[in-house]
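Subgroup meeting minutes
Present: P.N., E.W., G.H.
Scribe: E.W.

1. P.N. recapped why we're keeping a running log of single-chain structure predictions: easier to compare across weeks, and new members can see raw inputs and outputs side by side.
2. G.H. added today's entry (209 aa).
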Amino acid sequence: MTTKPVDWRRRALWLAGLTIAYNLVEGLVSMAFGWADDSVALFGFGADSFIEVASALLVLWKLLDHGNLERERKATRGIGWLFLFLALGIAGGAILQLTARTHPPTTVPGLIISILSLSFMAFLWRAKLKTAKALDSATVEADAACSLACIQLSVVLFLGSLLFLLVPALWWVDAAAALGLALLIGKEGLGMVRAARSAAFTGGCGCGH
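Output recorded in log:
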């Protein structure tokens, strides 16, 4: 019995579509709760969901002309800049929150959303990494990095939310968690932009090649 070969390009398109659908919902819910509860960390987490959407759209754009090195470079660089803009926005909001000495009235929504995100994004990250290696695509690998960043953000959001829930006197926890998110996102974005600008950029993902 012969095994049907995997159509990795089709799988990449399917994963991008799934990322868009899930993160649109997650982003809207997270930002709504973050805005209502004055939680910079949760609002920033929701904003990151839309970065995931933009990243997936860049993957779709790149896959329309698979093998085009310049398109691969632009898509990778674009995802990197999305990360950097988001990092600046979250850091600014966190600093304002620390200056005003404010905090959210509850972090229960953050706990629930972060747990759901951890389980789903872990699946997407592994699937995207495997697909990036098969296609030798820096763009798909960058998109996988977005999913990994989301996992890291989910962990930070979960720990920050849980700590505030257990010890409400720690008013600064939400803002500190937001700063942690900004650092993680900014570091990843800077690495992507540098890689895309390098003269040695080949479009390969570097994961096993």
